[in-house]
């Protein structure tokens, strides 16, 4: 049995296993903190600072997603300083990002009382939409630089390293290398970056087209679970079906095999299912 540590969270004493993060410890006593860049299957990136908490004896606020709990810590999750920090984080992100498809960011803004236009009118922030392949679209106006896509493309999942953060300050952006289009990069189109994106900055081409045509309706989508038939690994697929047509494929984040990650065949190789030409040629 591992060694445990004891700390207090908002005055409540809690014992957790050694190696537990402050965010996990807060969850155990239902004092959950908001997160944006954190993902259950990815390494903490410490990018968004939405999960900061106040730690007695520490001058700066600390990121609870990566700070490991230590014996005797006194943690405060809802002080005025913490609330103001989260509010400013939301306001800064809203000033440069389209939060239309970012429910976690919108929730953070609502909970913190953020003023969406507080920092607007500053530096120019016109971001392009990159449609350079038939599988997924990169809409940089929605990107909050959470690093999730970079982590999924790296050692946490795909190990392709096709994308990284380039530039500084307002010029920082997710790049496939020297401004290249994806077809010219090392991308293998697994779509795992799309699966972990929290804002819709990365979105399947089918969904993007349907949304632009006002045809996408979440209320009409049903989800059917099945097993991918392309190989013998046993990846579980969630088929998102609308009007008797597959419009998106995902995998459960808690699945013991995939952990939400798939290959290009599993995520995008479904068109044959609804191809009338294919059925006719085999009849």
TrEMBL record:
Residues 3-81 form the 2Fe-2S ferredoxin-type domain. InterPro entries: 2Fe-2S_ferredoxin-like_sf (IPR036010), 2Fe-2S_ferredoxin-type (IPR001041), 4Fe4S_Fe-S-bd (IPR017896), 4Fe4S_Fe_S_CS (IPR017900), Mopterin_OxRdtase_4Fe-4S_dom (IPR006963), MopterinOxRdtase_cofactor_BS (IPR027467), PSI_iron-sulfur_center (IPR050157). GO terms for molecular function: 4 iron, 4 sulfur cluster binding; metal ion binding; oxidoreductase activity. Residues 133-163, 176-207 form the 4Fe-4S ferredoxin-type domain. Keywords: 4Fe-4S, Iron, Iron-sulfur, Metal-binding, Repeat. It holds the Pfam family Fer2_4. Residues 221-277 form the 4Fe-4S Mo/W bis-MGD-type domain. It comes from the Bacteria. Signal peptide: none annotated. PROSITE patterns: 2FE2S_FER_2 (PS51085), 4FE4S_FER_1 (PS00198), 4FE4S_FER_2 (PS51379), 4FE4S_MOW_BIS_MGD (PS51669), MOLYBDOPTERIN_PROK_1 (PS00551). The keyword Metal-binding applies. PANTHER family: HYDROGENASE SUBUNIT, PHOTOSYSTEM I IRON-SULFUR CENTER-RELATED. Ferredoxins are iron-sulfur proteins that transfer electrons in a wide variety of metabolic reactions. This is Ferredoxin. The lineage of its organism: Bacteria, Bacillati, Bacillota, Clostridia, Eubacteriales.
């Amino acid at each position: 049995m591992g060694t445990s540590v004891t700390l207090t969270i908002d005055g409540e004493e809690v014992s957790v296993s050694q190696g537990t993060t402050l965010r996990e410890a807060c969850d155990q006593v239902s004092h959950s903190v908001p997160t944006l860049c954190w993902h259950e299957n990815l390494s903490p990136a410490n990018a968004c600072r939405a999960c900061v908490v106040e730690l007695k004896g520490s001058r700066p606020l600390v990121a609870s997603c990566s700070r490991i709990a230590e014996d005797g810590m006194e943690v405060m999750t809802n002080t005025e300083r913490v609330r103001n920090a989260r509010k400013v984080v939301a306001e800064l992100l809203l000033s440069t990002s389209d939060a239309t498809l970012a429910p976690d960011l919108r929730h953070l803004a609502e909970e913190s009382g953020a003023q969406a236009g507080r920092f607007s009118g500053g530096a120019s922030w016109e971001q392009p939409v990159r449609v350079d392949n038939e599988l997924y679209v990169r809409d940089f106006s929605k990107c909050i630089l959470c690093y999730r896509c970079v982590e999924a493309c790296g050692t946490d999942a795909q190990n392709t390293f096709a994308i990284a953060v380039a530039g500084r300050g307002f010029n920082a952006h997710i790049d496939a290398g020297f401004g290249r289009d994806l077809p010219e990069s090392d991308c293998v189109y697994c779509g795992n970056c799309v699966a972990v994106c929290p804002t819709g900055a990365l979105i399947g081409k089918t969904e993007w087209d349907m949304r632009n045509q006002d045809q996408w309706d979440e209320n009409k989508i049903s989800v059917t679970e099945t097993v991918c038939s392309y190989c013998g690994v046993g990846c579980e697929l969630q088929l998102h079906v609308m009007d008797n047509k597959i419009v998106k494929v995902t995998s459960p984040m808690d699945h013991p095999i995939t952990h939400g990650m798939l290959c290009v065949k599993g995520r995008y190789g479904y068109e044959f299912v609804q191809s009338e030409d294919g059925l006719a040629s085999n009849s």
